[in-house]
Specification:
The complex is a heterodimer of chains A (about 425) and B (about 220).
Chain A (H helix, E strand, L loop, with lengths): L6 E2 L29 H5 L2 E5 L5 H10 L4 E5 L23 H12 L4 E5 L16 E4 L4 H14 L3 E7 L4 E7 L15 H9 L1 E7 L5 E5 L8 H20 L8 E6 L4 E6 L13 E4 L10 H8 L5 E4 L3 E7 L5 E8 L16 E2 L4 E2 L1 E2 L22 E5 L4 E5 L26
Helix pairs in contact in A: 2-3, 2-6
Chain B lengths: L23 H12 L5 H20 L3 E7 L4 E12 L10 E11 L14 E5 L18 E3 L11 H13 L16 H9 L15 H10 L1
Antiparallel strand pairs in B: 1-2, 2-3, 3-4, 4-5
Helix pairs in contact in B: 1-2
Classes of the chains: A alpha+beta (about 425), B alpha+beta (about 220).
Chain lengths: ~425, ~220
């Protein structure tokens, strides 16, 4: 699968955007905070995964704080039923959620850079969330919970997960610090039922799409709730975010706050790590990257990090030791390649060479890459490399990766990308 | 390939493979590949446990031999499995059967936590001719032919289960007569052919730990 970048929203609907207002004229001076919170909020960069009944409200709240940068990620479109729980009008039915909510946010806060992805979270590049200070998660899909949890853990980003249980009028917010390897992650609390439910969410058909990807069917049921419970969860998530960013009250890292509508009680409890959690709990600690990564060798990168016996991951590339051909010939490759990249023809039979899947590695050790250990990455197929992760059992270090969202103009004729719409005030 | 040892199932079934004692050479091999295992601690432990179970299964299953094991990145194994394998029928309707499958297994870390297509785990490296099953993806050599083990496999499925499911799939002991209705097929021609030849299903009734078919072949071969 080709990984994608977040897309910058380049225009808004042709109705009037909000005039410039000073955040200070409404934001309170919180007790215990020495300075006005406005300037800190205006520098905040946040991503919201899930733009439904909870996530859309979170995004709108963030826009009202006039934050610096906001990303909205959602794969779905609004349906008629969305009117029952989501903060939209009938005109939004049929529109992509990420796009519509993104445009609303842009109208509310013209100063905020808005980035969108109308697709699956897993389609994004590994470092897509790098340019953000924290991430909100508001999806009812367990698979996305695991993926976002994993991504935030690797990048060391705080994760605020808001959810509801409609039948019991419960709104819940979990805040994952993601600073240390032994911090909890969303999957730490998964039991057998959750893993079964995760598996049942997706079915794959025994056929491939035109792009060669397996045809998949998403089967997770939409959240059954009421709009006010969803807004309660979104509001609680914002409270927790404010407390995290502004250090208000007791620390909120690695806690779950749960409000039970039936009893009108809110309970706060610590989140516990599960040492048998199958999710990779390693935080990739950032380290200064050399000016030009591609001129470094694997050996030099290993030496820079002082990591003993490391395995090294180079961007989203794979290291191919050898290729095979239908005539039985085998050829040494010893290069980094993008997944699915073509290898050329066999010199014996002119047939197409294929990377040997049993000699292809996502992370390489010195033993596997012995022949290229001292060669510059740019000379062994990794020209333009953006990031590397050097890790062993105990620690992981990343260099590079500060790619952030890209500024890409929407293609006017692509139905799935953003439309370029002029804002009336510009 | 029968090694003359009567198959012995551990008292608690395949779930107690960890109680099987490995032969010295298998133990040494396990230690060597375990030393090369990389990744976070949970993943490393899982790979090592799966590798041990695979070697233990080979110790009690006379039709199974492990030929290659690599725990460095993903868990990769190549196993020889004595099993009837259906090949494309001849023009006069005969169904050739090979008696050995070479399976290439790749178990990646993301399989622990993400739903994965059923054909992601096992490839049939040999025979290389066209395999005659609805759930095998036809790919010319040198690539293996992926074997689809189902539309939904549980996250974190055990390697021993993949081997047992592969055996069931190749012997057609686990064969659904409604193949054309269920989530599509990879080989439509094979699906239609088997629909008309259900009397040939299954190709073997011997369970994976059984050795009756192996002993019959050996006595025929003298």
């Amino acid at each position: 699968m080709n990984k994608q970048k977040l897309q910058r929203l380049e225009g808004t609907l042709g109705i009037h955007a909000a005039p410039e207002v000073d955040l200070a004229c409404r934001m309170p001076q919180f007790v215990g905070l020495g300075e006005h919170p406005g300037p800190r909020m205006r520098k905040l960069k946040a991503a919201v995964v899930g733009a439904g009944s909870v996530g859309a409200r979170i995004a709108l709240h963030l826009a009202r704080q006039q934050i610096e940068r906001l990303a909205i990620i959602d794969r779905g479109r609004f349906k008629a039923e969305s009117l029952l729980t989501q903060p939209i009008l009938p005109a939004a039915v049929g529109r992509w959620k990420a796009e519509h909510i993104g445009q609303l946010c842009q109208l509310i806060s013209p100063r905020t850079e808005i980035f969108l992805h109308a697709g699956r979270f897993e389609e994004l590049e590994t470092f897509a969330l790098e340019g953000f200070d924290l991430v909100f998660l508001a999806t009812d899909n367990l698979g996305v919970e695991v993926q976002v949890g994993q991504s935030c853990r690797h990048l060391g980003k705080p994760l605020i997960h808001a959810s509801v249980h409609g039948e019991t009028l419960v709104a819940q917010v979990r805040l994952f610090r993601n600073e240390h390897d032994d911090d909890p992650c969303p999957a730490c609390a998964f039991g057998m039922e959750e893993w079964r439910a995760l598996q049942a969410e997706t079915a794959f058909r025994c056929e491939l799409t035109e792009s060669g990807e397996p045809a998949r069917e998403d089967r997770n049921a939409p959240t059954v709730s009421v709009s006010f419970l969803c807004s309660l969860a979104a509001d609680l998530a914002m409270v927790q975010m404010f407390r995290l960013v502004l250090h208000l009250g007791q620390p909120v890292e690695n806690t779950i706050a749960e409000h039970a509508g039936f009893t009108s009680r809110t309970v706060v409890a610590p989140l516990k790590v599960n040492h048998e959690c199958p999710v990779d709990h390693q935080v990739w600690k950032p380290a200064p990257a050399p000016a030009c990564l591609e001129s470094c060798s694997l050996g030099q990168l290993a030496a820079m990090t002082n990591i003993i016996d490391p395995a090294i991951q180079v961007d989203d590339l794979e290291f191919v030791q050898s290729a095979v051909c239908a005539c039985g010939s085998r050829f040494a490759v010893q290069r980094f390649l993008a997944p699915g990249q073509r290898l050329g023809r066999c010199s014996t039979c002119a047939g197409r060479l294929q990377a040997d899947p049993f000699r292809t590695y996502r992370s390489v050790t010195r033993r596997q890459a012995a022949s290229i250990w001292r060669r510059a990455l740019g000379d062994v197929g990794a020209a333009g490399v953006r990031w590397v992760v050097v890790r062993n059992d105990a620690t992981a270090v990343r260099m590079g990766g500060g790619v952030g969202p890209s500024r890409v103009h929407a293609r006017p004729n692509d139905a799935n990308s953003l439309r370029r719409i002029r804002c009336a005030n510009h | 390939m029968s090694n003359g040892i009567a198959p012995k199932s551990p008292p608690k079934g395949l779930a107690a493979l960890h109680e099987v004692e490995l032969a010295a050479h298998a133990d040494a091999w396990l230690k060597a590949v375990s030393a090369e295992a990389r990744g976070p601690a949970t993943w490393k432990r899982r790979k090592q446990a799966e590798a041990r179970e695979l070697l233990a299964l080979a110790a009690i299953c006379p039709r199974l031999r492990v030929d290659h094991l690599d725990l460095a990145d993903a868990l990769r194994a190549v196993v020889f499995l004595r099993v009837p394998v259906a090949l494309r029928p001849t023009d006069d309707g005969e169904l050739p059967l090979a008696d050995l499958a070479v399976l290439g297994i790749e178990y990646r870390q993301e399989f622990l936590t993400q739903p994965t297509p059923g054909y992601s785990y096992v490839q049939i490296l040999a025979p290389t001719g066209e395999l005659w099953y609805p759930n095998v993806v036809r790919r010319p050599p040198p690539l293996g032919q992926p074997l689809c083990l189902g539309v939904q496999l549980p996250a974190g499925i055990r390697l021993r289960e993949l081997i047992v499911m592969s055996y069931s799939a190749l012997t057609m002991q686990a064969f659904n007569t409604r193949v054309m209705e269920i989530n599509g097929v990879f080989n439509t021609a094979a699906a239609l052919w088997w629909d008309k030849n259900l009397h040939r299903v299954p190709l073997s009734r011997t369970p994976i730990l059984g050795a009756d078919d192996l002993e019959q072949k050996e006595s025929r071969n003298g």
